Amino acid sequence: MKIEATNATVTLCNGEWKIDVTDPLARVRFYSEELASREWCEGVYASLSVREEGEGRSPVCYAADGVIFDYALPRGKDVRLSYEAKVFTKESEPSSVALDIIGANGVTLYIGDIRFEDSRDPYAPLLGGASLVQMPNFEHLGMGYLVRDSRGKVFVIDGGCKQDGKHIASLVRAFGGEVEAWLLTHYHKDHISAITDILRNEEIAIKQLIFNFPEVEELATIKTDVDEICLREFYAVLATCGNKVEKTVQAHKGDAYCFGEITVKVLNNPYYYCEKDSVNNSGVIYKLETGDQSVLFLGDMADRGDVYLQEQWFADEIASCAVVQMSHHGQHGVTDAFYAACKQMRVCLYSAQPWVYDATWIGGEIFGNTTLDPFRTRDIVRERGITRIYTLRDGYVTVY
C-alpha cells in the first residue's frame, strides 16, 4: 500500500498514516496491488479507519468522485468510513482510489486499516420490481413515502404536513389517481395532516385507509400531546369526506394484507400510556414485503420499540428488512439495540431536512425544546458500513 496526498503531507507512523492537511481541499490517493486487476472506473467498496485530532464533532467533509458521503465525525476516536469509489488506472503505476478531504485546513488525521472489496452495487434493484419514493417535504418537516409495484398499484405511508398534501395527490394522480392502501403510523401533525388535507380538498380514490388511532372519547384517558387537535380534525374530515375512502381498516398486530406483489404486515399494537414520547411510542410499525426484500416503516417510534423487540417473532420480522425508515427523522427515535436487530439493513431513509440531519436548528420548539441528536443514529449507520443513505436534502428519491 502506498499513499500520496495533494495539499497535505503524509507520514507513516506506528502502522498508520498521519495526514497533515494544508489546504481546505485535499486529496489522498491509495495505491494498492489489490486494485491491480481492476479496470478503469470500475466501482469498488472502500473502507478505512480515520481518527481526527481534537474533541467534539468535526467540520471536515469526506468525498469521493465529487460527492460528499460523510461529515461531522466524532474527533479523538477511530471511526470506520465506508464509501463506493472508482478505480483510477495509469500506465506504469499501480491502480488507485481517491478520498477527498474538504474543509480540513490545519487538521491532522490518521488513516489505517484500508480495505477494498467488490462494489456493493449501490444502484442494484432491491424491491422485486417495486419502487419507493421518499417525498420531499414542502413545509417545515414531515414524513411521506409512496410505493408502486410493477403493475402500477400505489401505496402511501403517512404523508406529511398539510402543505405536502397537494404534492402527494398530484403524484398519485400521475400514477392513475387511486391508492391501493394508505398506511398511517401515528397521529402527529407532520404525519397525518397531508391525508386530512387530501380528504378535504383533493380528488383521489383510496381503497383502504389503514391505521389504529384512539377514538376521540379515549383522549381524556390516555397520554397524548398538543397534536391531538390534528387527530380530532382527521376524524371530522373523514366523517364528512369518507366517500373518497372505500374502506377503513383498524391495524392490529399480526395482520397481513396481501395486495398481490406486496404484502403489508402490522408488527405491533399501539400503546397509549408511555410517560415519555407518548404519541411517538403509540405508533404502528409496518413491514412491506416486496419480492425477496422488505421495507420497515418505524414512523416516530421511540424506546417502546425495545419492548416489542423482546418478542422473537417481532425480532425475526425486522431482522430481514433491507430498507429501513429511520425513526423520528433519524434522531431521538428507537435505541441502538433496535437498529442492531435490523440485521439486513442496507438502505437508510431519513425523513429529515438538513437542519435535522445536521443538527443546525436552534429554535427548539419543534421537538419540545429538546436538543437535536441525529449523530447517534448517523454513527450507528456509519459503523455498519452502510452507504445508501437518503435524506430530504436529496429531494425526490426513488429506491428500486
Give a structural overview.
- The protein has 400 residues and is of the alpha+beta class.
- It has 2 domains: 2-118, Sandwich (Jelly Rolls), CATH 2.60.120.260; 131-399, Metallo-beta-lactamase, Chain A (4-Layer Sandwich), CATH 3.60.15.
- It has 9 helices and 26 strands.
- Helix 1 (165-174) crosses helix 2 and helix 2 (189-201) runs parallel beside helix 3.
Keyphrases for this structure?
400 residues, alpha+beta, Jelly Rolls, 8-stranded mixed beta sheet, 34% strand
What are the SSEs and their pairings?
Elements: E1 2-6, E2 8-13, E3 16-21, E4 25-31, E5 43-52, E6 61-64, E7 67-71, E8 79-86, E9 88-90, E10 93-102, E11 108-118, E12 131-134, E13 144-148, E14 154-158, H1 165-174, E15 178-179, E16 181-183, H2 189-201, E17 205-211, H3 228-241, E18 245-250, E19 256-259, E20 262-266, H4 278-281, E21 286-290, E22 293-297, H5 305-309, H6 312-319, E23 323-325, H7 336-341, E24 347-349, H8 354-357, H9 375-383, E25 388-390, E26 397-399
Parallel strand pairs: 14-16, 15-17, 16-17, 17-18, 22-23, 23-24, 24-25
Antiparallel strand pairs: 1-4, 2-3, 3-11, 4-10, 5-8, 5-11, 6-7, 6-10, 9-10, 12-13, 12-26, 13-14, 19-20, 20-21, 21-22
Helix pairs in contact: 1-2, 2-3
Brief sketch in words of this structure:
The protein is α+β, with helices and mostly antiparallel strands and 400 residues long. The protein has helices at 165-174, 189-201, 228-241, 278-281, 305-309, 312-319, 336-341, 354-357, 375-383; strands at residues 2-6, 8-13, 16-21, 25-31, 43-52, 61-64, 67-71, 79-86, 88-90, 93-102, 108-118, 131-134, 144-148, 154-158, 178-179, 181-183, 205-211, 245-250, 256-259, 262-266, 286-290, 293-297, 323-325, 347-349, 388-390, 397-399.
